[in-house]
Input
Amino acid sequence: MKKVLLALFALLALGLAGAERWDMHVAWPPANFHTKGVMRFADLVKAKTGGKLEIVVHPGGALGFKGAEILRVVRDGTLPIAEVLMGNVQGDEPIFGLTSLPLLASSYDDAWRLYEIARPYYEKALERNNAMLLYAVPWPPSGIYAKKLLKSTADFKGLKVRTYDANSAEFVRLLGAEGIAIPFSELYTALSTGLVNAVLTSTVTGVDAKLWEVTNYFHRINYAYPLNMVIVNKAMFERLPKDVQEAVLAAAKQVEEEQWNNSKKADLASELALKNHGMTVVKKIEPGLQKAMKEAAKKLWDKWLALAGEEGKAIFKAYFGE
Output
């Protein structure tokens, strides 16, 4: 009885102090560096606001929401805050497909410059959906895991590749393979049973899924540096006291900087882990295959530009300096 009363008094005190509690969706497992970054953000928010705002992180998709619906549920206030792969919500706003366009960025420096150019457009798209961008962090560059060495487009014939969005599925199709959407939780089983025999993803995901047990090669094609973004319901954010808003934005800026560095570190550490488990990391892609990939990428750029309209053209002009 005493414990119950103490708990009630604690809740009452929390309410009197004007504290607020937000539940936050994260799709990735607890050990993933993106999840760790979100946990760091939540800790910083609590510290910088003096406990006035508590963000409770629910990793592994525990709240039951799927990637494609995240923007809508944040917009409607069902979720106050969430982290989501940008490409998952390009159906709501085509601009978010930019981050997963193939072979657009070839390094972290390129990816950062592209992000700086595109961020105002991301913010406009989110504002149209009653949401705000707090920060964004890239995955390490995507490559192709396969059971065989891929040297030409002929090697893509009959290949069934697990892809993570519409762009990546179309990319492998243009190379002659089949793109298949499979939840991360089912990936290992799909590879074990032959439902798929290749995967387009990062070194980090390869370690998370222990892909060295079901594939033999990781081809570093630097497909893309897809961004995960942390978004918040705009109306709910604006209801926070001014000092709390400033603290949240300061925490977001700090974590964004830290996490871009952590992405680089996670990539290097994960590549080493893949090698240590016997996987062959292929860094030199055959010229003929590289040419075919660039041609496929260009088709996807043109398709995206048609959807993104003038905003897309403005981003490309600034990025390529044309």
